[in-house]
Amino acid sequence: MSQNLNAGDVCLKVEKFNAWYDQFHALKDINMDIRKNKVTAMIGPSGCGKSTLIRCFNRMNDFIPTFRQTGKILFEGNDLSDRFIDPVEVRIKVGMVFQKQNPFPKSIADNVTYGPKIMGVRQKSRLDAIVEESLRNAALWDEVKDKLKSSALSLSGGQQQRLCIARALAMQPDVLLLDEPCSALDPIATSKIEELIIQLKEKYTILIVTHNMQQAARVSDHTAYLYLGELIEYDETTKIFTAPAQKATEDYITGRMG
Amino acid sequence: MIQGAQPIQKIIAAQKRNEAIFRVVAIAAVAISLATLGALLFDAFSDGLRRLDWQFLTSFPSRKPERAGILAAIAGSFYVVSLTSAISIPLGIGAAVYLEEYAKNNRFNRMIEVNITNLAGVPSIIYGILGLELFVRMMKLDRSLMAGALTLSLLALPTVIISAREAIRTVPSSIRQAAYAVGATRWQTTRDHVLPLAFPGIMTGIILAISRAIGETAPLIMIGALTYVAFLPTGLDSPFTVMPIQIFNWVSRPQKGFFECAAAGIVVLLILTLMLNGLAIILRNYYQRKFSVRSL
Ligand SMILES: Nc1ncnc2c1ncn2[C@@H]1O[C@H](COP(=O)(O)OP(=O)(O)OP(=O)(O)O)[C@@H](O)[C@H]1O
Ligand SMILES: [Mg+2]
């Protein structure tokens, strides 16, 4: 497997990583370096372990009792699964948007400010600024600016998903994990989010799971193809989409499989 | 059409018939329970209303039925129920939060769970025996308000815990994940998201448990609550009586006048219970609306 990616600092280093749900071997011997300030796309057929892997980067699998893992994921030089690493600290630095939109049943503004508030931001003007900036970045501001106090659950599914993106952005994390962020969005909102992703990589390291090949090709610098828990191929996106090294990758991308 | 399917008209007719039957059964069920409640109220009110006046509400018990009153019992019930709530609600919610959000799924915790479920089915007199031994004798609380409230708390706790756990379990885990993902701790997630969403359900359990505690007689008789109390409770260590005990006492007297006192006492007990339930339901509905979909 070729790993001659664009030079650049490594943000997350996955080493000999295996994961299980009970007896089910969900991730098999994954090795990959995720580069800083790049967009890394993860593609692969449904059930291949993309969500499982992305959840390992912010310790969200801690809440699944049957989950077990071996190997390492190094972030800023520390193993994320080390006993003395505080998962709360990891999640502050590594933000996440889930596959299914999950706004809090609170007001739109409260959804965005919840994270900053628990981080101790109290000043009203500062919170208001965070709300506006985050919602603008998530391409939602114009639609909700007159009803920031109404329930987040009154928004449409796609709007809710953008609100969840805004909520993650409000934390200004170092890494942003996006698990199919556009699966509930129309083409206009999708292209807004894609623009945002490209723009955000100046500041953030971004991982995005997507079933949309064009989207992976448009926004990502690197692409990883997973199949049945294995990392089949991981390379620069242009390479993956023009001259993949593996036949399996080519079959998937061209729609002959998966 | 699916091959082998019945004609559509036939299916629809059958469904309509089932629906009609179901409706009749449902209406009958509601009618029967309403009729029972109506009969109960009518019975109590027709005997009790004559005796129910200001004098009755503000007098202590007396040897003469026409001078007897329920004041000491109302005060006693009020204090006992307040104390019971103050003890069992925080303890019960705390236990439920621990079991649902913190406890590992190991054998010890499963054993605790099974035991709590079983405790909810234990007859109340058993709690009275436990209260007598534990609070009255060992902790030397004597026949005090505190002993009564602790005993009733034991009785209320399983119901509060079980219903709070069920309410907590209905909070979708995606909400918890959303909170964790922005760096909330377990406690922050529980306090800011899980408990507010579970609140209406928890409230339902509390209503059930506390209404039961108000009407409970046996365990309090067991720990030796008095039947003749001519003073208001003065503190946690004060002897006391409660409404059901007072009513029971009047019913068991031979004179006709005390029978009327009992009926009037029942009316007071019913009204106070309904008021308390009403208040709790208003609170619950307020919160239900507060977290419902379209309004906030
Ligand atoms: N909580 C869980 N308990 C048991 N097995 C699980 C759990 N979550 C996922 N799995 C299994 O792990 C495998 C990978 O699941 P995962 O959710 O990571 O797939 P995915 O690649 O994200 O799929 P999709 O594209 O459909 O979202 C699947 O076979 C799934 O059945
Ligand atoms: Mg997934």
Molecular structure report:
Chain A is an alpha/beta fold and 258 residues long. In chain A, α3 (108-118) crosses α4 (124-137), α3 runs parallel beside α6 and α4 (124-137) packs across α6 (157-169). The radius of gyration of chain A is 18 Å and the shape is globular. Chain A has a 6-stranded mixed sheet, with helices on both faces. A 4-stranded antiparallel sheet of chain A has the order 2-1-4-5, with helices on one face. Chain A has helices spanning 50-56, 87-93, 108-118, 124-137, 141-144, 157-169, 187-200, 213-219, 237-242, 247-253; strands at residues 10-21, 24-35, 39-43, 67-75, 78-79, 94-97, 175-179, 205-209, 222-227, 230-236. The two termini of chain A are 21 Å apart. In chain B, α1 (8-48) packs across α11, α3 packs parallel to α6 and α6 packs across α8 (186-215). Chain B folds into 2 domains: 1-48; 54-291, MetI-like fold. Chain B has helices at residues 8-48, 54-58, 71-102, 107-119, 124-138, 145-169, 173-181, 186-215, 218-222, 243-251, 256-290. Chain B has 296 residues and is mainly α. The longest helix of chain B has 41 residues, at 8-48. The chains are: A alpha/beta (258), B mainly alpha (296). The A-B interface holds A 58, 60, 63, 65, 88-89, 91-92, 95-96, 98, 100, 102-107, 114-115, 118-119, 149-151, 153-154, 164, 167-168, 170-171 and B 104-105, 172-185, 188, 192-193, 197, 291, 293-296. The complex binds adenosine-5'-triphosphate and magnesium ion. Residues 50-51, 99, 179 of chain A line the site of magnesium ion.
Summarize the structure.
The complex is a heterodimer of chains A (about 260) and B (about 300). Chain A is built from 10 helices and 10 strands. By secondary structure, chain A is of the alpha/beta class.
